[in-house]
Specification:
It is built from 16 helices and four strands. It starts with a helix and ends with a helix.
Amino acid sequence: MSMDNFWKVTKFTVAQQVKGKAFKISTTIILIAVLILTSLVNFIPAIFGKDDDSKEATNGIKKIGIETAYYMDDSDLKVDLESGLKVAFPNLNLKKATESRETILEKLKTLEDKMVLVSISNENIGYYVEVITPTSDAVSSEDGQILAETISSILNNSRLIKAGVSQEDLGKLSTPINTQVFTAGDEDDTLEDMIIKMVFPMVACMLLFYIIYFYGYWVASSIVAEKTSRVMELLLTSTKPMELVVGKCVGMGFLAITQFASILLTAYISFIGSGAIVKKFIDTSANIFDISTVLGKIPVVQVVLIILFFILGYVLYAIINALVGATISKLEDLNTAIMPVSFISIIGFYLAYAAIMSPESVIGTIATYVPFSAPFYIPSMILSETVGIVQMGVSLLILISTIVVLTLFTARVYSVVILHTGNRLKIKDLFTIFNNEK
């Protein structure tokens, strides 16, 4: 194989694809989508977190969207609720209900005022605090829940004080006890570790599927387009069929890696930029997603292995698509001809995606060793550190062996198939050509 001819085909493929409107538009849309989605990771928590924080003043006093609360205390607690709520909600107007429950409920159904009814009563097994909000949206259910929880806390504290518990001991008793369940080996995992093990694998699976699937499709589309325009005949006058197919695959592969890198770079810039904007203009105390810390936790070996599986996955599907593209002579036959390949790749993707959810299952084992799903699945498992070295090695060996077999098959039939005109060649026709060629 002449390297000069190979590079000529590669450069020609890259130039033709970059000039196309489909490539420019799709790349622009993808990068804009990545920019928006990744920036929202910082913007949404900061905006909503600020709204939540606005419910509390800087001195710790809570704020809720309730102006008036009528309360009925039919319990035997005899707690001074007014003084307790005045400390928690200085702007809340608390009134003892002088009207019947039914009358106040009717008001709540018709009025637009920011008022609620608080009812405290005895139950067989304890006490019951009820906060009834208006039928309208004047008071949110969140604010009603905050008020109910605050009243419940006041009642509990009052009961403890009456039982002889000191204020100091009451403070200790009020200290929350946090609980968490860990799997052995994950007890030291930080938020960044959990993102790498849970979020990144799913994102990697979908991103690799997009790159491998669509660029493989474009290999077939490019070959068919050139066959229909007779460009192929001109190329074949100066290049051999295998120089052509390898050059096509490498050219598209270069574009795939370039677009993959541009997506990662855009995401990185978006995370950094949106974090800086949040800190400066929205909330200086907001917790932003530190992409640098996350990336710093991914070992270089893992990155190399992910790239290796990505390249091999692309090569696998590119060879198949190049062969399929050569079997047809009309562009309108492309979708029909490529349907089996699309079907295989989609099954491989969903198999990998399902396996990510349960890597220890039979589906996980199948996705590991099937060469059409391994390029989507193994990189995800590398990130989550749930694949063994032996499993990964066997999967890699099967994937490479499949590529070698397909390459040998394609090398024998391609010189005949690429010059074919007329009806679409079927799989049995390819095997006939393979047996006839020496």
